[in-house]
Every structure is written in structure tokens, then in C-alpha cells.
Amino acid sequence: MIVFSTESYAYMADAICALGSFERGQVERKTFPDGERYQRVLGTCAGADIAVVGGTISDSDTLELFDLACAMVKYGARRLTLVIPYFGYSTMERAIHDGEVVTAKCRARLISAIPPAAMGNRVLTVDLHAAGIMHYFEGGISPVHVYAKPLVEAAAQRLGGDDFVLGCTDAGRAKWVESLALGLNVTPAFVYKRRVDGSRTEVTGVSAHVKGKPVVIYDDMIRTGGSLLGAARAYEQAGATSIAAITTHGLFPGDALDRLQASGLFSEIVATDSHPRAVELGGEFLRVESIASLLAEEVES
Predict the structure, then answer these.
(1) CATH no. for residue 174?
(2) Element (H, E) at 257
């Protein structure tokens, strides 16, 4: 198995290779004056099982992954595995109003259009924000959903101790948090929300008794952190002794992480390294846990 990566996910490919009997593939890159990207696969792919690691963190990164994967097949990859630690576009995973473009489906179709390797293509995704995205991949590509549950459970136990409440930001994630809480043998909780207008919601209550207990909030994805802040305030007002948060995908655009820390609500936030932004910002307040071992196991299978 030879493991290649897009430029943004070199760190993940390196971590995967450090855990298994993989060869690290190399790509020569440069950018032409008009912005066109040049990529050249160094070494041979003929007859080899190939993994390409890359996330859809932007349209540019998505096309870089697509172009590189197509080249692997052209130059003789025996089997192609696309490792996508973070599959974006989940805001537009379905249409609500007439005329809306379902971007998540369009991007899944793009990935599905990569020519098939001799022994087939597969795509690995991690903790998708919308489970239905798995069904958007078409043709001969085989989708595999990798769950970061082992890391989330371990982090929750470390943060919460022997007796804590596992919370979520709203009722929409309640089923997933309920499943996690069952495995951890702790109480699940979620907050009730009321929509104020088209862009604002307010918290109206908490579903479980949290007074005198630490609360660990799980959210699969943190972007600006607005929902997380609202939930944390509700748990604090309900009597939680401490609050920490765990996320699989930490995007933290702009000053989002600074605002979460400045709120004084959180003792710590834990994120995986599924997104380069979390890796960039990792430190004492934001602890970053690697999913490389979970991905390496799937890549080898």
C-alpha cells in the first residue's frame, strides 16, 4: 500500500504511514502564474494498492483530491482508497426550498466519477454530519463510514470522571449522544430550543438533571461555536459543576476558538485531527486527538 495525500493533509498521511507497513507516496507540486495547479506523481503506481488522503475543506482541496486520484488510476493503481477525514458541504446536504443546489450530493457525484481502478475504488469518511451523504456516492465506488466513537468515549471519560452527564447542543443530535451515553453508562442530556426568527434561536430548557455534576458536551462538528455556547450556558444555569466539549470535526473559522475560550464556560475542548484547522490551533485549551489509527486500520483492510 502506497499512501499519497493532498497538500493540506500531509500530516494525516504521515501519521497513517507511521502506524502501518505503508510506503509514503510523493507528489511534486507547483502553481502556474494563472493559478493553475501542477501535480506530478513521483514513483510508480502500476499494480500497487493506493490510498489518497484528502479532505473537502474547500473547493480547491476537493479538486486537488479528484485530480490526484484520477492520476493514480491512469498510472495503473490496482486498488484505490480515498481517505476523506472531513467531508464538507454538509450545510447543503438536502434541499429545503425550490431551486436549491444540494452541494453535498454534487461533490459525492464528483468523487464517484473518478475512473475505477482494476480492483475497484472505495471512499472512507468519518462521522458524517448527515448520515444520508453515504447514499450520494454512485456507481462502483464503495463508501465506508468510519466512526470516531472510541476516541470520543475515551475523551469523555477523561474529562467527566466517574459520574457525569453527556450533553449535546440540541435535540437533533440526541440519538447519537444517547448511544454514546449508553455505552459509557452515564446520563444523556440535550437542550430545548425555540426559533426566534430566521437566524436566531434561544434555549428554553434542559432535558436532564445536571445540577452538581460535570457536563461533557459532544457535537460532531464545531464551526463558529454559536450552538455550543448556547448549550453550555444552559447547562451552567442548570447547575453543572464544570463543562467541557468534544467534537470530531473542529473547523473554528476566524476567531471562533478564541471566543469559546474567552466565554470562560469550558475547561477544555477536545477535537480530532480530521480538519487541518484543529491541528493548527491545538494547544492547552484545544486538545487534538488523532484518528490516524482508525483510518490506518480501515486502509489496511
Answers:
(1) 3.40.50.2020
(2) helix 256-262
